[in-house]
Structure formats: structure tokens, C-alpha cells
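User: I'm curious whether this sequence folds into something compact or stays loose and floppy. Could you predict its structure so I can see for myself?
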Amino acid sequence: MYKNLAAALAVACFFSPLSFAQSTPLKAGFVYVSPITEAGWTKQHDEGRKAVEKALGDKVRTTFVTDVAEGADAERVIRDLAQQGHQIIFTPSFGYMEPTLKVAKEFPNVKFESVTGYKTAPNVAASNARYYEGRYLAGVAAGRMTQTHFAGYVAGFPIPEVLQGINAFTLGMRSVNPRATVKVVWLNAWFDPPKEREAAMSLFNQEVDVIAFHTASTAVMAAAQERGRMAVAYHSDMRKVGPDAQIIAVTHHWGDHYTRRVKAVMDGSWKSGSVWGGVKEGMIRVGDFGPKVPKKVQGEVLAQQKAIGAGTMHPFTGPITDNEGREVLPKGQRLSDEQILNMNWLVQGVVGKAGR
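Assistant: Here's the prediction. I'll summarize afterward.
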């Protein structure tokens, strides 16, 4: 049938299993800790997933599972995705770290991305964003806008990532308003809209006129809108929920990072390691100002954002004292990444203790 061996081999290669495998879309899985709401933590990660699809087209097929509790449920879902042939699985929640590591040992040929985790393995990479950079900038806006000098903060769990945000927000506020005080309510939950709302309402009853939060829904923003108070949106722009309440948003952007990691699996360049990106890398941004914020304040915040991106400004620069009166950092020094990643204290100006 073929005139020579070379032609026969060429046809055989064309129809080889390897060639077929290369034309099959790569399967990328995503596990979400909450439902996909109109804004918030999970919404931003799903926007990242959609960005992967837009960038890579028919070269990739994505799957996602929502509202997966941290712990045994997460382990089951992650394992199911690996068994279904997903070549890379993203697990964006701190409580998914250990389940991800456990499942990864069973599937050494699958790549896993532990987002907000810090432990790695040969087939598990970690990534996170420097949320504290945006928190500091939001604190500057809040410090300029408050009339009572009291801010509230609805917090999920007392892990370093959350403590970084509370501290940076407080430092930002007090950089422009030394009288500012931040009151924290711990929920011990990431996504519980009724509890988030209740915590916000409680803070508004304590002279708080501007509020921030580290939880996954829009409940705190909605409560601020209802009570005629001000709020800092987190994860997403929430002006649809709080058109009058929102003064600024700290937004997260995962699309470029997720796309790079999927492409790395495709071209065989994927490696384990840790990524911690912020304003400079485009993973964190502040903006989406509300109508109450004067142009002068907007300009001040955006100028400081530019300085953080350029590396000429650092939110954790001394002198810094904790809220028990101990010096944490002398004047002129900066906290190292290691010190920030292991943060277990609250700065002067925060009412309460870490975790309570």
C-alpha cells in the first residue's frame, strides 16, 4: 500500500496514540469552598478559571466543584477529580492544604496547586497573594473617611494571612488618622452569611462607621448598605451590593497565574515551588471607589499603590508596636517575608487578641 517504509512510518506516527493524546484537551479541576456568588472569594477564583478557558480555548477543559467543606469532604472531591483524569487540580482554600497533600501522594503524575497553603511536595505547588498590600491601602481610605475613628473587621480564622490583613489595614488607617481603632470579630468560618451579617451589625452598634472583612460572601457589604455605613469590599468589586456603602475594593486576580500554571503542565515545564505575588505582579489591586470618596483621597491611595508596586513603600515598616505594648519592629526596618508569613500578633490600635 505504501511505496516506501518512510511513508508508512509517517502515517503510523500520524495516527499514533501519542499524537492523539497531544490533541486531547488538558483537564484542569477546581475545588471551591463556597458556592459561586455574585462577588467574593470563590467568584474571583472562578473568574480565574474562565480566564484559563479564554486564553487556551479548546486546548483545555475545566471542571469545578462548589461548596466543598474543608477536611474529609475536600479530600474526597480532590481524589475524585484525580481519578477522573484531571492533570492539574487547583485547591483554593487554606483548609484544603492537608487533603491536597494526602491525595497528591496517591497520584504522583497529577499536578496540584494549593492556593493559600504553604506546604509543597514534588507534585504540589503553593501560591498565595500579598493581600496585606491591598489591606494597607484600604486602611488609608478608611482612615480618611471615618468620622467616629472606629472601624470594624469581620474575620474568618486567626491564621497569619488574616492577621496580616488586620494589621496592615490598621497601620494604613493610623498612618493618616492616629486616633483610629479597629474592632475585630472572629467567626471561625469562611462562608456563613448569617453570621457575617450578625457580626457586622454588632460592630455597627459599637460606633463603627466603616468596616472591612475577611470572609467569603457579600453579607458584610449588604449590612453596611442597609445601615448607611461604609465598607471595604474584599475579593471582588461589590458596588452592586453596596452602591452607597462601598468606599474601595481590594480585588484578587488569579487568571494570569492559573493560565501560566496550566500552560506549564501542557509544555512539560511545570515545577513545584511557592508563588507569593502582590500589587507588582498584578495579583492584588485596589480601586472601584464608591461615590462618597473624594478625588483627593482616591489619588492618595492610588499613588501609594503605585509606590508599593515599585517597591519604594512597604506596609510593614517600623516603628511597629503590638497591641500589648511590645515593640515588634524598630523605626526604619521592615518585616521580612518569613516574619510576615508567621505573624501571630495584632498591632497597636486593634482591640482584642488574635483568635478571640
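Summary: The two ends are 80 Å apart (CA to CA). The longest strand covers residues 246-252.
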